[in-house]
């Protein structure tokens, strides 16, 4: 497996993981602010969709079906529960920072140039990841 293939697989796993994590947080903190739970769960659904996009791309590119969807989602949920003692603000800061670095990485890949089919994938998910990077400030910012 070359570096690119490994990256696509890892992206698929991370997206599925994030779906599980956002889903648990959305349920745990649904009353933190009006619509807050729904907002997190909506972000989770976007991650799920991203995961499916990476899986589809992987299948087309390598003719291999990635099968770890359920496992990665379960792991994301497990981590969500394990993080229960951590204050929400810390968790969201961590998540937002991570989303921001994902967005920067994607922007760099797009600028550097990638295969046109992969470019479509990256351009599709970038606006969502940028939106996710604002989750912390939406919840705890001064706005
Ligand atoms: Fe994503
Ligand atoms: Fe995201």
TrEMBL record:
Pfam families: Rubrerythrin. InterPro entries: Ferritin-like_SF, Rr_diiron-bd_dom. GO terms for molecular function: metal ion binding; oxidoreductase activity. It comes from the Bacteria. Residues 10-138 form the Rubrerythrin diiron-binding domain. This is Rubrerythrin diiron-binding domain-containing protein.
